[in-house]
């Protein structure tokens, strides 16, 4: 015997378990809110921009070949910024008590396509600390690159600024709660259909027909106590 599920059956199952689905969804949102607001430590980000631009000694104009050379050096510079050669000096100047690898994990270096600008970002639990770190990295890098690469084509374009009321970059509380709502809804709906599938009790004449594969030839309507009392009074 094949079982077919109609849209009406689906809606009926969802309606029947609506309270459970709503409860699981709300519980997931509340848990995500508690974790986002009270458990996860907020992280702040500070960013500085570094311009890679070789200055020509013979002409005030920068040639196309010089720009291409600078663009090719950007990937190398991105690795140098996160190397112990730079970060050990930053650690010493700021007395961070971090290893070079621990400090490197806080740093993100990005570059837009065909751009000579490097964006160096640092995330930390303190916005002031993140700002000090990223500005020190830029300063140390600008100084040390002349020795490491024997070039002088790095300028600090835009240093990070301290802020009295910074906004954390993580956690994204609204996004976390939205994801929790979707997951809670999916779990609730899945559990509703699972419980309906595991429920093998007979509830209607259709269930009898499906189970016995025999037609129903008669029904006994339920008799309430009120109907029984009316019937007794009529006979009396």
Q: Tell me the CATH topology of the largest domain.
A: Alpha-Beta Plaits
Structural class: alpha+beta
How many separate domains? Answer: 2
Cα distance spanning the termini: 51 Å
Portion of residues in beta strands equals: 5-15%
Share of helix, binned: 55-70%
Which CATH architecture of the largest domain would you pick?
2-Layer Sandwich
Largest sheet: number of strands, sense, barrel closure: 4 strands, antiparallel
How many distinct helices?
A: 9
The shape, in one word, is elongated
Fourth CATH level, the homologous superfamily of the largest domain? EIF_2_alpha
Describe the structure concisely.
This protein has 236 residues and is an alpha+beta fold. The chain has helices at 7-16, 18-39, 64-81, 84-94, 100-104, 127-148, 173-198, 205-212, 225-235, and strands at residues 44-52, 107-111, 117-124, 154-158.
Question: Could you walk me through the main structural features you see in this protein, from its secondary elements to its overall organization?
Answer:
- The model has no long low-confidence stretch (mean pLDDT 85).
- A four-stranded antiparallel sheet has the order 2-3-1-4.
- Helix 2 (18-39) packs antiparallel against helix 7 (173-198) and helix 4 crosses helix 6.
- The chain contains nine helices and four strands.
- The protein has helices spanning 7-16, 18-39, 64-81, 84-94, 100-104, 127-148, 173-198, 205-212, 225-235, and strands spanning 44-52, 107-111, 117-124, 154-158.
- The protein has 236 residues and is an alpha+beta fold.
- It is elongated, with a radius of gyration of 34 Å.
- The longest helix is centred in the last third of the chain and has 26 residues, at 173-198.
- The chain has two domains: 7-38 and 172-234, no CATH class; 44-158, EIF_2_alpha (Alpha-Beta Plaits), CATH 3.30.70.
- Its main location: membrane.
- Residues 131-194 form the Tyrosine-protein kinase G-rich domain.
- Pfam families: GNVR, Wzz.
């Amino acid at each position: 015997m094949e079982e077919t599920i109609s849209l009406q059956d689906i809606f009926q199952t969802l309606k029947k378990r609506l309270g459970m689905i709503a409860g699981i969804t709300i519980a997931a949102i509340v848990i995500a809110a508690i974790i986002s607001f009270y458990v996860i430590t907020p992280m702040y980000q500070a960013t500085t921009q570094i311009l890679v631009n070789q200055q020509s000694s013979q002409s005030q104009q920068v040639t196309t070949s010089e720009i291409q050379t600078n663009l090719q050096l950007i990937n190398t510079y991105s690795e140098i910024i996160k190397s112990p050669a730079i970060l050990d000096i930053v650690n010493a100047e700021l007395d961070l008590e971090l290893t070079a690898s621990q400090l490197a994990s806080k740093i993100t270096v990005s570059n837009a396509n065909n751009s000579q600008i490097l964006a160096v970002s640092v995330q930390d639990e303190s916005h002031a600390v993140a700002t000090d770190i990223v500005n020190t990295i830029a300063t140390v890098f600008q100084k040390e690159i002349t020795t490491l690469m024997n070039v002088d084509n790095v300028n600090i374009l835009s240093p990070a600024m301290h802020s009295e009321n910074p906004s954390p970059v993580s956690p994204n509380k609204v996004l976390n709660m939205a994801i929790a709502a979707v997951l809670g809804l999916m779990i609730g709906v899945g559990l509703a259909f699972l419980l309906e599938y595991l429920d093998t009790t007979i509830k209607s004449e259709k269930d009898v027909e499906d189970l016995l594969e025999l037609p129903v030839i008669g029904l006994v309507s339920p008799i309430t106590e009120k109907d029984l009392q009316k019937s007794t009074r009529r006979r009396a």
